[in-house]
Amino acid sequence: MAIVNMLLIMSLIILCCWFSYTDIKERRISNKLTYPAIIVLLVFRIACSPEYLWGLIPGAVLFLIFMIIPRSLGAGDVKMVALLGVCIGLERAVVALLLMCIFVFLYQGGRKLLSMGGPTSVPLAPFLTLGLLGIVIEL
């Protein structure tokens, strides 16, 4: 099972890199990739390791935040967190989100120190990918 999980995580890293690219370039994360990946992972996790389904909790929390304050984050970010959570589990997903927040904070702080203007919204996919890589390096 460890080999299967590692293959899933490697596939997730590739997907997250693509999501990061499209989020930076187009400010969107493709439903054509997120929905099938979530469905395949859900079916696999239900059949083989249902404890990973707890990883949907961070995505559900972000979905509630998105529904209450729609401009706070994008729907693609919510789906990406749900995908990440189902793949790596609740504890690792929470750590990846914490790392994402730290990276965003450092990025925004750097922009502020350098007095860079421009848009205040930040594409979260690259920072979430960095958080995922932080988890994988720990493994």
Descriptive key words:
78% helix, 0% strand, mainly alpha, 139 residues, globular
Account of the protein in words:
The structure is a single chain. The two termini are 15 Å apart. The protein has helices at residues 2-26, 31-48, 56-68, 75-88, 90-113, 125-138. By secondary structure, the protein is mainly α. It is 78% helix and 0% strand.
Characterize this entry briefly.
The protein has 139 residues and is mostly helical. The chain is 78% helix and 0% strand.
Please mark out the parts with pLDDT under 50 across 5 or more consecutive residues, or reply none.
Answer: none
Shape: globular
Percent of residues in β-strands: under 5%
The biggest sheet amounts to: none
Task: Describe the protein's topology.
Elements: H1 2-26, H2 31-48, H3 56-68, H4 75-88, H5 90-113, H6 125-138
